[in-house]
Amino acid sequence: MDASVEEDEKGRRRALNACTEPCPIERGMRVIGGKWTGSILWHLKDEPVRFNDLVRMVGGASKKMITERLRQLEAQGLVRREVVDTSPVSVHYEITAFGRTALGFLDELRKWSEELPQELGSDA
Asked: Of 20, 44, 85, 87, which is the most buried if we count CB atoms within 10 A?
């Protein structure tokens, strides 16, 4: 990840140690960079959460979008889905051990975002 550009004696430039496709940053962003993905993981960090409660916690996202993201996260092994045999039937989601590995940098992102000037995060 220490890419640089070098110029030879004829003025031609070439990249040294260029990122491979996809580079590690891009691979990570493909996993957790989807809209609402980080928020969903963050809200599951403490305990399993019922689907409807998660929808309430992640303000601004539709049920359809949350369902889509949860399916994606479950397929990637970041979240576990459990159907609870109650009346009516309830579905809980919880973060997996693998999903927990993302919480450290999500917390750092949260801290960084809290320090951003208001105008940078207002229309994202």
From this structure: 44
Q: Residue 22 belongs to what domain range?
A: 1-32
Percent of the chain residues topping a pLDDT of 70: 96
Q: How long is the chain?
A: 124
Domain count, the chain: 2
Segment 74-111, tens digit of pLDDT: 999 999 999 988 888 899 999 999 999 999 999 999 99
Distance (Å, whole) CA 110 – CA 75: 25
Spatial separation of the C-alpha atoms in residues 70 and 48, rounded to whole Å: 13
Give the list of residues 6+ apart from residue 123 with CB closer than 8 angstroms, or none: none
In a domain, 122, yes or no: no
Longest CA–CA span in the chain (Å) reads: 76
- Which pLDDT score, from 0 to 100, does residue 75 have? 96
**In a shared domain, residues 41 and 80:** yes
What's the CATH number where 64 sits?
1.10.10.10
40 and 23 in a common domain: no
Beta strands in the chain (DSSP E): 4-7, 13-16, 49-50, 79-84, 90-95
